Amino acid sequence: MAKIKVTKVRSAINRTQRQKRTLEALGLKKIGQVVEHDATPNILGMVSKISHLVSVEETK
């Protein structure tokens, strides 16, 4: 299965509660923090909902 690296690049201040919870569910707390996840449909859906707050890159 493919892996993706998700990096938080923007603050969650003045964001909806749903977006804040999505960041927490992905394991992102601080700006610059990087987490690695499998590229499942669930994870990709969460990332697409907060794409303006994170950057994503594929890994092997």
TrEMBL record:
One of its GO terms (molecular function) is structural constituent of ribosome. InterPro entries: Ribo_uL30_ferredoxin-like_sf, Ribosomal_uL30_bac-type, Ribosomal_uL30_CS, Ribosomal_uL30_ferredoxin-like. Residues 4-54 form the Large ribosomal subunit protein uL30-like ferredoxin-like fold domain. The keyword Ribonucleoprotein applies. Keywords: Ribonucleoprotein, Ribosomal protein. One of its GO terms (cellular component) is cytosolic large ribosomal subunit. Part of the 50S ribosomal subunit. PANTHER family: LARGE RIBOSOMAL SUBUNIT PROTEIN UL30M (PTHR15892:SF2), MITOCHONDRIAL RIBOSOMAL PROTEIN L30 (PTHR15892). Belongs to the universal ribosomal protein uL30 family. This is Large ribosomal subunit protein uL30. The gene is rpmD.
